[in-house]
From TrEMBL:
Species of the source: Virgibacillus kekensis
Protein known as: DUF4396 domain-containing protein
Organismal lineage: Bacteria, Bacillati, Bacillota, Bacilli, Bacillales
Protein origin, superkingdom: Bacteria
TM stretches of this protein: 6-27, 34-56, 113-136, 157-177, 189-212
InterPro entries: DUF4396 (IPR025509)
Length: 220
């Protein structure tokens, strides 16, 4: 096993452990906004210890049965919104990988382009659904369709920019960093995906800042 594979196993292990730590706590102290019970553990997978730290610092403020003053500033509220967006994208991207592998799908003879198409579609669907389940409970009187349209308006830009950052890294992995790109059955592949998610988070954060600042997207 080469050094990169060892690093990959360690990184994935830390990410999964971070997810488990958060999951155990949200089971004990569920979030007031139920979709965040899914969001926080997903973020643990790619943000690792930082997700654990941010959850216990900011996430628990919004847990049922815990009385804590909300001391979050604007940047941390945008972090909440970005985490919410990123988790939907991450879930869609992760689900998309085995679909492409099992079907053997290619686009223009490229497996990478197939991953782009399938993962973007699923990431967008999950991202919009996550946003819908965040805003619908607070605005049920407006109806399902109005909340669904608001979800598309609120999250489309940030979802697209998440995928832009992620796909850019995937292109580097596929065409520049490796002579033979890692495959989904290799842990190095999922380590590269972890990095892609982090980059996607960083590229979507400014969009979420702007969306929240303009009132297009609600503060979380």
């Amino acid at each position: 096993m080469d050094i990169l594979s060892i690093v990959a196993w360690i990184a994935i292990g830390i990410g999964l452990l971070s997810s488990v730590i958060i999951l155990v706590d949200v089971i004990r102290y569920p979030q007031m906004m139920w979709i965040m019970n899914i969001v926080w553990p997903i973020n643990g997978w790619f943000l690792g210890p930082y997700a654990v730290w941010s959850y216990f610092k900011w996430g628990r403020i919004k847990a049922k049965g815990i009385e804590k003053e909300d001391t979050r500033g604007f940047p941390s509220k945008v972090y909440f919104s970005t985490s919410h967006c990123a988790s939907g994208c991450t879930l869609g991207d992760a689900v998309g990988v085995p679909i492409v592998v099992i079907t053997g799908l290619t686009i223009l003879g490229s497996t990478l382009f197939a991953h782009y198409a399938v993962q973007f579609t699923l990431a967008y669907i999950f991202g919009i659904l996550f946003q819908f389940f965040a805003i619908y409970p607070m605005n049920k009187d407006a109806g399902v369709m109005k909340n669904f349209k608001d979800s598309i308006k609120a999250d489309t830009l940030s979802l697209v920019l998440f995928e832009v950052g992620m796909f850019g890294w995937m292109a580097l992995v596929h065409y520049v960093l490796f002579t033979t790109p890692p495959k989904p059955h290799q842990m190095t592949y999922w380590f590269m995906m972890q990095i892609a998610m982090i980059i996607g988070f960083l590229t979507s954060y400014p969009a979420n800042w702007w969306l929240v600042k303009k009132g297009i997207k609600e503060q979380m």
